[in-house]
Write a structure and sequence with these properties.
The chain contains 11 helices and 16 strands. It is an alpha/beta fold.
């Protein structure tokens, strides 16, 4: 039997099988009104359906199942023990568990929210007390600008292992916004400063919080500041002498009428001879047009308060910088650094180009169009730390 014959027989068998599975029936045909009009032949092809089912039962075709995305969308499993540990850590943060880094805090005082930032050095370890330096910004400035201007106090804190604190003054009464000031006294009247503000009380509360949050050496709390911040440093030395160990004012003097510290206060002061903000030999400030006494009046006042020797010793001299130190009662000392040609700037710090509003010969002389020259013959930040580090209450 040849190939063609086999194909013909196979086709014939298939046709016969198909016909054997088909049945005919007569079905009634209804009119629209429901009456029977006749009948028609209807073929039943159930066989084909049965044949299809047999074939599918014999041959199964598998293909990858598609995931139901909605059903597979599961909530991530939370590790409950880790979650509890994080909560505990957050709670511990309120119980003085802080590591190295930068933190911002607020404290309520006189119905006002006051701000301060803290830099914890890399050397910090819970339970090991380390010193603190409070850095006061100048008038019409901010804590951030002061940290940068002084030459990077936070970096110095990391190098020398102390906590750097940067409090913020309040915005001026006539110029709300980022221009902040300190109420440091009344001998120099500035309209932007509100005399009712208790900045000493604010700093005292801030120190309370620092002692609660961090391991600080309460016997080694120092203060520095420039311009209006220098004034504030002097006020703390007068009114918070039981908590402030020593101070390092820059380009600003004492403007408090009464100063009665409980103990001699060690001081290192930096001042430029061509300072337009607080003239070295006395005179009106180029910015506020208010009188400033000669800066040596401030130094002499503290020499009397600390009961120092009459004659100082030269303890530093380089280029345009000369520092002289007075020995005082109870091992205290006062160092006064004069910068020849220096302006209203941080010695060894950043150079600013703040314009001088009042443009006359007195203010412009030797100043260019800025706050004056920034000497690099001494770095105030390094010098004050060397002065501070061995002084304790």
């Amino acid at each position: 039997m040849n190939k063609k014959t086999l194909v013909f027989i196979s086709l014939l068998v298939v046709i016969l099988l198909l016909l054997s599975g088909c049945t005919a029936s007569r079905q009634p045909v209804s009119n629209n009104d429901g009456s029977v009009a006749g009948a028609k032949v209807a073929w039943n092809f159930d066989f084909f359906q049965r044949l299809k089912e047999k074939i599918l039962s014999r041959f199964t075709f598998s293909r990858p199942s598609r995931p139901n995305l909605e059903q597979k969308k599961e909530t991530p499993v939370v590790n409950q023990p880790d979650q509890e540990q994080k909560v505990d850590q957050r709670q511990d943060n309120t119980l003085s568990k802080y590591g190295s880094g930068d933190y911002n805090f607020t404290v309520e005082h006189q119905n006002k929210t006051r701000f301060y930032s803290v830099h914890i050095p890399q050397c910090y370890s819970e339970g090991q007390a380390i010193p603190v330096i409070i850095n006061f910004h100048g008038g019409s400035s901010t804590a951030e600008k002061s940290e940068e201007g002084i030459g990077g106090m936070n970096r110095k804190a990391d190098e020398s292992c102390f906590i750097a604190v940067h409090p913020s003054g309040l915005s001026s009464v006539n110029q709300p916004g980022k221009q902040q000031y300190w109420n440091a006294g009344t001998l120099v009247q500035i309209k932007e400063i509100d005399p009712s503000i208790d900045d000493v009380g604010f700093i005292s509360k801030m120190l309370d919080e620092l002692e609660a949050k961090f391991s600080i050496d309460a016997k080694k709390v120092y203060a520095t500041g420039i311009s209006n911040g220098a004034w504030m440093s002097y006020r703390l030395a007068c009114e918070l002498s039981d908590r402030i160990t020593a101070i390092a004012p820059i380009s600003g003097g004492l403007i408090l009428e009464n100063c009665n510290p409980k103990r001699p206060i060690p001081i290192i002061h930096f001042h430029g001879i061509k300072d337009p903000g607080w003239p070295y030999y006395g005179g009106n400030s180029c910015w506020t047009d208010t009188y400033r006494p000669p800066i040596k009046d401030t130094i002499q006042r503290w020499i009397n308060i600390d009961k120092c020797a009459d004659k100082p010793q030269i303890t530093y001299q380089k280029g345009e910088v000369a520092c002289e130190t007075y020995s005082c009662q109870l091992s205290s000392k006062i160092t006064f650094c004069t910068i020849e040609g220096g302006g209203h700037t941080y010695p060894g710090g950043a150079t600013f180009q703040q314009l001088i509003p009042k443009w006359d010969d007195d203010c412009a002389l030797g100043q260019g169009r800025g706050v004056g020259k920034t000497t690099q013959d001494i770095r105030a930040l390094d010098a004050m730390w060397e002065f501070f580090k061995d002084i304790s209450l």
